[in-house]
Design goal:
Blueprint: E1 2-3, H1 6-19, E2 22-27, E3 30-34, E4 41-49, E5 52-57, H2 66-84
Helix pairs in contact: 1-2
Bound molecules: zinc ion (ZN).
The site of zinc ion has 6 residues, from loops.
Length: 87
């Protein structure tokens, strides 16, 4: 699990913009990311502990990778929907 910071997520998002992988929601906080060119598929998970955000991806990268960068957009939208959903 790697902590998400403003700096590392910005880099990952920029890389995702270039790579444009396909992101599918598995469930809230779990995303399937596919590289359209190679067909490689990875699962990204987000976790929140206290006020810190963490992410993990099952690719071999040990940093916040572009799979995480690609998923976070969908994650933010879903998180806001759940947060603002009427009880
Ligand atoms: Zn990855």
């Amino acid at each position: 699990m790697i902590e998400i910071t403003k700096t590392n997520i910005e880099k990952a998002i920029n890389k995702a913009r270039q790579t444009k992988p396909f992101v599918k929601v598995i469930e809230f906080r779990r995303y399937s990311v596919t590289n359209k060119i190679t067909g490689a598929n990875y699962t990204v998970k987000f976790t929140k502990i206290d006020d810190k955000k963490f992410a993990e991806c099952d690719c071999k990268a040990t940093v916040i990778c572009y799979h995480i960068g690609a998923s976070i957009g969908a994650h933010i939208v879903l998180a806001e929907q759940i947060h603002t959903a009427p009880a």
